[in-house]
Amino acid sequence: MKFKDYYAVLGVDRDSGQDQIKNAYRKLARQYHPDVAKEPEAEERFKEISEAYQTLSDPDKRQAYDALGRHRPGEEVQPSAEWETRYWQQGGPQEVDLADLFEQMGFRTAARSGRGARDFAIRGQDLEVSTELSLEQAAHGAEVSFTLSVPVQRPDGRIERQPQTGRIRVPAGVIDGERLRVPGRGGPGHGGGAAGDLYLAIHLEPHRLFRAVDHDLYLELPLAPWEAALGAEVSVPTLDGPVTVTVKPGMRSGQKLRIGGKGLPHRRVGAGDLYGVIQIVMPPHCSERELELYRELRAASTFQPRHHFDDAHPAGDATHG
Amino acid sequence: MTPTLLETPPMADELLIPADDSQPVALEELLAASGLEREELVELIAIGVVELRGTQPVWTFHARTVTLARRASRLRDSFGLNPSGIALALTYLERIETLERQLRELESQLPRAAVDG
């Protein structure tokens, strides 16, 4: 099995006391806990930290870990025969993960302490997988495949990791950050305990045009200045294909056009809305004729867009005119 | 002591169907799925961070409470929090999520160049 340096993970010396180990863990947990930290690597890092803490905070496990000796992280380690007799009654595992080994050691301790099998029924591990869906898949439902590395106990008592694949039906109407629970499909229980659950975390891929906020979608809707002034019939894309929308005369940048029911569907009935956010945009180049018309417009208009800057008019008058 | 022979979970190539979001979750199921102790859950309900579904004499919960309760037990285990501490952390996390949602909503209304560029 591959060696992991639990002391280095927690950043403590090998002779640190339990309090120092606990403090180091608490400090790192505050930084990397997946419920608190937002960086994508935080979850992976937190797994290492809590794995290290679980072994080093238990005096029996720490003693067994220390007895493995010092190695470089990732180095292949074979427990000595003496280690096996001391800590492992039925022969040490071969192809295992260090974490599984120490986790199982806890079960052994419980089993050896003379309690009946029913007393140490342990619920199976919950498994977490995540998937990236497009907005279209979220709207229409999808089927996703996943692969997990699951610790499985063999008839001889050893735990080994086995790859497991599966498929989950994602119902229409999921949103970003949602977790779907599949009861009883996590890791198997121990000693008569129930199986754990499987959780599928949903992440929505960024879309070329739409931005999702829960069930609502936002779309930037550019208008030419004359479209904003005069109004227009524009074709707007939705997840179900284009719709024609009437833009009223006099639209301003930032105003929202609500297109009801064209957001992401809810799980049962209804759907969120699609918002077209108006942006008044200028053509990259104006022709001489266009400029001429603007000059004409300038001469004809009495509009004063910065009217409210004037000291003579208090801020309350800003909307006037 | 004979080790218990454990079966591989039956997920080879069978299509798994997630739990129905609208189905109530029973108290025992919530406790098993979250790893919270009964007393802890009772206290979190009393503080008001965990809500009951309806007012039936038998307690049931919304499916979304499973995620919340799992987060509660993670916070308890990782930071050694008691129910008041858990409730405080959950309240702050919920507040942060509301603010992040509002931020996303506002960002979604800005021109793309202002957000992405």
How would you characterize the overall build of this protein?
- The complex is a heterodimer of chains A (321) and B (117).
- Chain A is α+β, with helices and mostly antiparallel strands.
- Chain A has 3 domains: 1-120, DnaJ domain (Helix Hairpins); 123-206, Urease metallochaperone UreE, N-terminal domain (HSP40/DNAj peptide-binding domain); 210-317, HSP40/DNAj peptide-binding domain.
- Helix content of chain A is 28%, strand content 23%.
- Chain A has helices at residues 6-10, 18-32, 42-56, 59-67, 81-87, 98-112, 135-140, 225-230, 288-300, and strands at residues 127-133, 142-153, 159-170, 179-182, 198-204, 210-213, 216-223, 232-236, 243-247, 256-259, 274-280.
- Chain A has a 4-stranded mixed beta sheet with strand order 6-7-11-10. A 3-stranded mixed beta sheet of chain A has the order 1-5-4. A two-stranded antiparallel sheet of chain A has the order 2-3.
- In chain A, helix 2 runs antiparallel to helix 3.
- The longest helix of chain A has 15 residues, at 18-32.
- Chain B has 117 residues and is mainly α.
- Chain B is globular, with a radius of gyration of 19 Å.
- Chain B starts with 14 loop residues before the first strand and ends with a helix.
- Residues 1-6 of chain B have low confidence and may be disordered.
- Chains A and B meet through helix 2, strand 2, strand 3, strand 4 and strand 7 of A and strand 1, helix 1, helix 3 and helix 4 of B.
- Strand 3 of chain A pairs parallel with strand 1 of chain B, so a sheet runs across the interface.
